[in-house]
Amino acid sequence: MKIPKKLRPIHDLYAKNIREMGATPKAVGWKTDECQQLRFEKLVSVVPETKNVGISINDYGCGYGALLTYFRKKRHLQVTRYNGYDISQEMLAAAQREQRAFTGRLNLLASEKITTRADYSFVSGTFNVRLDLTPEAWEMYLREKLCEIDRFSRKGFAFNCLTSYVDYEESHLYYGDPCYWFDYCKKNFSKRVSLLHDYPLWEWTMIVRKC
Hints:
Layout: H1 8-21, H2 33-44, E1 53-60, H3 66-74, E2 77-86, H4 89-98, E3 106-110, E4 118-123, H5 135-151, E5 153-163, E6 175-176, H6 178-188, E7 192-196, E8 203-209
Parallel strand pairs: 1-2, 1-4, 2-3, 4-5, 5-6
Antiparallel strand pairs: 5-8, 7-8
């Protein structure tokens, strides 16, 4: 795939991480496995607590496929189709290895654009690293990407961001205003929007239910 210029530094960062750290939470920017699992718990709350229901998933910025592992181990849901998107071939190769038992329902795509329609779409951490892009340019990209995610999500989607309610910011990261993004999702995607900002991490999760 041809990687957009604005995303090339991000691609290089995560390609380096997976080579040096392997398929671990640290390779995709999380300090611990516990933090990663808590994020997944919040994101996956967009799916109703109905047992034995089959769902299809888009995982944008899928890394090594850890979200699929979470679904398979922790949820009473059958993932009938998993579409994992990443711009790093190294990450996708790791996902292929990690999820080899899921063959037949695993669809890994080296693409910056979503092209598969699914019941639910998820974005975990992908919007946090902007590197040398300005916050304004990154927010324009996020708005475009969320519109794309909405088009390809039948029942809903969920994403997270570092919060603007912090005392200190790293210059290469994006800290999103949760009130702005709640308003944006409410006005543009669905009346059924929930903001989760009560868990012990410096971030928030947005839940958008369409039905």
